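User: Structure please.
Assistant: Input sequence and predicted structure:
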Amino acid sequence: MLPKPNEGGTYFEPFLGGGAIFFALRPEKAVLSDINCELIETFRSVRDEAARVIRSLAHLPYSEGDYYRIRSKLPRESWRRAARFIYLNKTAFNGLFRVNLEGRFNVPFGDHGTSLLVCDRTQIVAASTALRQVRLLHADFEKAVASARKGDLVYFDPPYTTAHVNNGFIEYNARVFSWKDQTRLAKVAKTLVNRNVMVAISNANHRSIRALYRDGPFELHRIDRWSTIAGNASKRFPTSEILITSDKGIP
């Protein structure tokens, strides 16, 4: 687990995704951002209009037919769009988020059984409370961390490198985060460390990634896990990631 920022410092997470690290750390000050505007809008709606999101989500039925019907429409109201986003994330195959070249969500239905809790009121209310004082940005990662200063903590969790075959969505990741973006991220991380900002980065354990950070002020920690991307269990395999940390305050 990562430490919290220094006292008075700010936590930055510019590839927000589900925000698991933020919700685990619960820092007093945070700037959370992502390039996915639907995701950020959903977090804002959960923060600012949780009751409306809950009411809308609670009325969405769960079946394969309903899934594709809901997936095909985009509501006008922000809280209904947030409910739709949460619904699709809960009911899609493996909880994936993926869009086609036209920007439309295209993950197929996931049969999670009748026990699936689509509308978790307790979870949404807790998330709303945690986000109350958080600044939410729809921005590129470089712009999102531009204000980070000494004592702050920045955690980068980008789409993983596409330079190897152990990645479940190679072509998709290449579109949303290119190798040029990976090298730009490494430069941004080094700049932050030179400003005495604590930095941590998750990525695939691949020689191309290790080479980006080998000569910088970083330590590389290998983390082994079991791949869960494949729908067929026989096609899942052991894989490894790396946690790249600055040598200024992160163990």
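The mean pLDDT is 88.
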